[in-house]
Amino acid sequence: MSESEFEIIRRYFMRQSQKREDVITGIGDDAAVLQVPVGQELVVSVDTLVAGVHFPENTPAAAIGHKSLAVNLSDLAAMGATPAWVTLALTMPGNNSTWIDEFSRAFCALADRYRVQLVGGDTTRGPLSVTVQAHGFVAAGTALRRKGAEPGDRIYVTGTLGDAGLALQLRESAPDGLQQKLDYPEPRIEAGHVLTGLASAAIDISDGLLADLGHLLESGDSGASLQVDALPRSDAFLSALRQSGSLQQPPYYELPLSAGDDYELCFTVSGKFCPRVEQLLSAMPCGCTQIGIIEESAGIRCYLEDGTSYRPAGQGYRHFDKAGK
User: Fold this and answer.
1) Which neighbouring-strand residues pair with 40?
2) Which residues touch 205 (CB under 8 Å, ≥6 apart)?
3) How distant, in Å, are the alpha carbons of 5, 21, 74, 151, 188 from that of 146?
4) For residue 324, what pLDDT band results from cuts at 50, 70 and 90?
5) What is the pLDDT of residues 242-260, one digit of tens each?
6) Most buried one in 165, 169, 229, 231, CB count within 10 A?
7) In whole angstroms, how far apart are CA 144 and each of 155, 192, 200, 228, 282?
8) DSSP characters for 95-130?
9) Calpha distance 81→205 (Å, rounded)
10) What are the pLDDT digits (tens) for 128-165?
C-alpha cells in the first residue's frame, strides 16, 4: 500500500535531529511560526531543480536531496548569512519509498551539518522537481550584496571551476572527483562569513562565471578584466582533460568560464583588504584565487597570460535559452 502525503512527511521528514529554539511551530501545522533574533535581518532564497533540466534523469536520489538544499545554502553564503530554516516542496511521479528515504536522509544530513531545521513544505504527484526555500540571518546592515564593486577592486573565486561542467560533458565516464562536485556541491557558508565586512560585492556561481560575474557588474555599472590562465582548476579536471587529449582545446578555458553548477563564490575586494582575505581563506579547504580586476568600462574582457585577448565561445547558462543545459 502506498503511503499518504502525511505519512511520507511524518516518516521521512520529521526524523531530522535539528530542533532550533527559534522555531515556535514547525512541521505539523498549516504554517510555520518563526522568530527572527533581535538585531538580525532575515535573508531568504528559493530555487527549483527540475529533472532533465537541473540534473540528469538518472541522478541518485541522495545526490538530488543534497544538491537541492546545497544550492539554496550557496545563495545564503553569497550574502554572508547564517542558515536557519528551510521549507521543501517535493513533486514526484510516484510514491517510491526507497527513493524518498535516500533523498530525505541526504537532505537532512546536510541540514543538520549547518543547524538548519526543515519547518514545512508540500508533497504532490507530478514530474520530478524539488523547490527549496532557505532562510538565514545576518547582523542588521551587514549582508553581502552584488552591488558594491569599485574600479580597482580585485576579483576572486573560491574553490575550483569547471568540474561539474566536465562531469556533465563526460557523463558516465566522469571520474569520481568530478562527479562528486556535480552531485554534492559544498555551500561556502564559512567563506561567506569571513567575507562579511571585507568583500565589496559577492555572488555565487550557479550559471557560470561569466554569467554570474556579469550580474554582479550590472548591479554596479562597471566592467572587468579576467586572466583566464589564472582560473583555478582541480587536479581531477586537468587529469580528465589530459586523458582525453583536450588540455589545450576550448574545454580548458570554456568550462571554467561558462559551464555553471560550480556553486563557488565570486567576490570583489578592495586592495587594502586583499592580504587579509587571502590569509583567512587560505586556512579554509576552499581557499581562494585572484582572477581579475574591476574596471570602469562595461563588459568582461578575457586575456591569456601573454596578454593575448581571449574570446569565450559561451556566456553561461540561460534558463530560457533553447541552447541552455
Assistant:
1) 139
2) 157, 161, 212, 260, 262, 263, 264, 265, 266
3) 39, 31, 14, 14, 16
4) very low
5) 887 665 566 689 999 999 8
6) 165
7) 15, 8, 8, 25, 20
8) --HHHHHHHHHHHHHHHHHTT-EEEEEEEEESS-EE
9) 16
10) 999 999 999 999 999 999 999 999 999 999 999 999 99
- What cell numbers appear for 44 in the block? 531568504
Q: Which residues pair with 157 in a beta bridge?
A: 266, 289
Query: 70 near 134, Cβ under 8 Å?
Result: no
Strand partners for 117:
85
**Superfamily for 5-139?**
PurM-like, N-terminal domain (3.30.1330.10)
Q: Are 294 and 268 in contact (CB under 8 A)?
A: yes
- Spatial distance between the Cα atoms of 259 and 168, rounded to a whole number of angstroms: 9
pTM, 2 dp: 0.90
CATH number listed for the domain at residues 154-310: 3.90.650.10
Query: From the CB of residue 40, how many other CB atoms can be counted at a distance below 10 Å?
Result: 17
**Domain ranges in the chain with CATH number 3.90.650.10:** 154-310
Residue showing cell 573560491: 158
User: All 3 cell numbers of residue 291?
Assistant: 582572477
CA Rg value for the chain: 20
Q: How far apart are CA 27 and CA 123, in angstroms?
A: 13
Spatial distance between the Cα atoms of 122 and 37, rounded to a whole number of angstroms: 26
d(CA 213, CA 211): 6
The answer to whether 103 touches 64, Cβ cutoff 8 Å, is: yes
Backbone angles phi, psi at 232, to 5 degrees: -75, 125
CATH 3.30.1330.10 location in the chain: 5-139
Number of other residues whose CB lies within 10 A of the CB of residue 39: 9
- Pick from 132, 108, 126: nearest CA to 45: 132
